[in-house]
Amino acid sequence: MKILVVEDEPGMLDNMVRSLEEEKYVVETAATYEAATEKIHLYKYDCILLDIGLPDGNGLTLLEELKKQDATLGVIIVSAKNAVDDKVAGLNLGADDYLPKPFHMAELHARVKSVLRRRKFEGNRLLELNNLTVDPDERTVCVNDVQLALNRKEYDILLYFLSNRNRLVSKTALGEHVWGDQIDEADSFDFIYSQIKNLRKKLKEHGAQLEIQAIYGIGYKVQAT
């Protein structure tokens, strides 16, 4: 899962990023309104942690823009402002949750997981497709109740496919989502092909009833078999 943290306080930003990365999220950051605006127009995210008090703009204005662009995007307002008016305004503009500072990182993780379940997994704790079950909280994948040994990227690719089942996923979108904006520095998509090849092999060996279809020149599509 890919998260954008919009926060201008360096110490808080660093703590949030390190904590989220320990939970195996792909994390990108923006410390200003301008940088955040650029990010959301270039990349797709599963969840955005948004500070209201940015040095060059209002986070609520950014929230309004985010929801116009993608009404299904999960947004959690993370702000030192704990006024009722700010909270109500944020929720009315489409924010999923409001977390006042200071907070424990364990609470942040719980709020993020809750938003992702609602927005990406239809409120379910587990993702299931025929005989395959994924537990996003535990980061486990089972076929017929037998756990697969997937590396981090193989798991992230599979989770992204299942979150977009029956949809065409472009190679660029997949790369950005699993590797973050570092994908811009890549010369080719060979590393993606390699991970998908290994993932297909493991799924086939365990008898998973799904197919990762390659759409020549465009990307991939996952369907039940």
TrEMBL record:
InterPro entries, sorted: CheY-like_superfamily, OmpR/PhoB-type_DNA-bd, Sig_transdc_resp-reg_receiver, WalR-like, WH-like_DNA-bd_sf
Pfam family, one: Trans_reg_C
DNA-binding region: 124-224
Keywords, alphabetical: DNA-binding, Phosphoprotein, Transcription, Transcription regulation, Two-component regulatory system
SMART domains linked to this entry: REC (SM00448), Trans_reg_C (SM00862)
Keyword Chloroplast: no
The organism's place on the tree of life at top rank: Bacteria
Gene3D superfamilies from the UniProt entry: 3.40.50.2300, 6.10.250.690, Winged helix-like DNA-binding domain superfamily/Winged helix DNA-binding domain (1.10.10.10)
UniProt domain Response regulatory: residue ranges: 2-116
GO cellular component: cytosol; protein-DNA complex
Annotated ranges, domain OmpR/PhoB-type: 124-224
Residues with 4-aspartylphosphate modification: 51
GO molecular function, one term: transcription cis-regulatory region binding
A GO BP annotation: regulation of DNA-templated transcription
Protein name, per record: Response regulator transcription factor
Species per Swiss-Prot/TrEMBL record: Pontibacter burrus
